[in-house]
Structures are given as C-alpha cells and as structure tokens.
Amino acid sequence: MKIKSRNEILNDVIKDGEKYPENWKAVFGKDNKSFSNDYYIFNPNTGIYFLKEYQKNPFEIKGVGGKIARQVDEDIEAKVSKYAGDFGIIQGDYRKVLKNLEKGVKPQKILDAAIKGKKDLGISLPVRGHASSSKDVFDDIHNTLSTKQKKLDLKFEKMATEDGLYSSYD
C-alpha cells in the first residue's frame, strides 16, 4: 500500500468517483487511541480507501491515507447499508460560484445544480453515496481491516507526534 497525504487520497477518490459515480459507501468514526477521525470510503469497482486525519489548528486538517483493499467484502457493504445516511465529497470553483452569485443566480439553484450532477454553476459532487457513523459498524470494520492499515497507523502516529498532538501543555 502506498501511503499518501490526505489531499492526494481525496483526489484519488474523486477521480474514481468520476469514473464510477454510483454505489459509493463510507464509514466514519473516531479512533480514540490515536485521536484521529477515520474514514473508510469504498466502491465495489475501486476497493477501499482509508483516511486518517486530525484538526491541527482551526485552519488546517492533516492526515494520511491509502488504498487498503482492491475489493469490498459483501458483509462490509451490507453492514453500512443498514445504518446509512447520505454523504458526498464537494468540489468547488469558488470564482465561478462568485460570478454566478454576482449575476443573480440564487445559492439554492447552485446547490440544486450540484446535486443533479451539473458542474456549470461552480459546485459538483463527484462522489456521493451512503455512509454510516454507527460506532458498532465503525468498530466492526476497523477491527476487520486492522491488519491492512497498520503501516498507515504508524505513519499517522509519527506525523501526529512530530506536530505535538500527543504532547501535553507545559
């Protein structure tokens, strides 16, 4: 598995989302041991991406990720489907959004266009599907895939340690 930065992984997911817009699923949870927010984002056509991140300060989110599986087990998909809500990754061209707002296009129309898959107003949703934030589902998937993500966990802990995430205040 190649470990990449948070933004590189999100770009990979978005690229795959443009190729395979349907059947995305995600599981969100908190890893209390490493103080991270963890995300499993997957599609039967692409495999499973794992992203681990934390809020370094109010302006910066840092994280690492990787593709931890090329295929998605049916039982993982089934667990997410039971507890699913909607999720999506939003991409935006802020200049285009501002130009449309200046022209008098209402914000709701811009959002509606994005939801319908139209990019011409400045916002798009290249990845959307169902997600679960159920602690039971997260813990189950986290434990099932724990051996595949050890290398990524170590990289995250090294980065977080260098940033002082685990240091107490003096």
Account of the protein in words:
The protein starts with a strand and ends in an 8-residue tail after the last helix. 38% of the residues lie in helices and 34% in strands. The mean pLDDT is 88. 31% of the residues are buried. The protein has a domain of 114 residues. The radius of gyration is 18 Å and the shape is globular. A seven-stranded mixed β-sheet has the order 1-5-4-3-2-7-6. The chain is an alpha+beta fold.
Could you say which structural class the secondary elements and strand pairing correspond to?
alpha+beta
Report, as a whole number of angstroms, the end-to-end distance.
38 Å
For the largest beta-sheet, the strand count, sense and barrel status come to: 7 strands, mixed
Tally of extended strands?
A: 7
How confident overall, as mean pLDDT?
88
Inertia-based shape: globular
Q: Describe the strand arrangement of the main beta sheet, using strand numbers.
A: 1-5-4-3-2-7-6
Our Rg estimate from Cα atoms comes to 18 Å
Helix content: 25-40%
Strand content: 25-35%
Low-confidence stretches: none
- Count, helices: 6
Q: Give the SSE string.
A: EHEEEEHEHHEHH
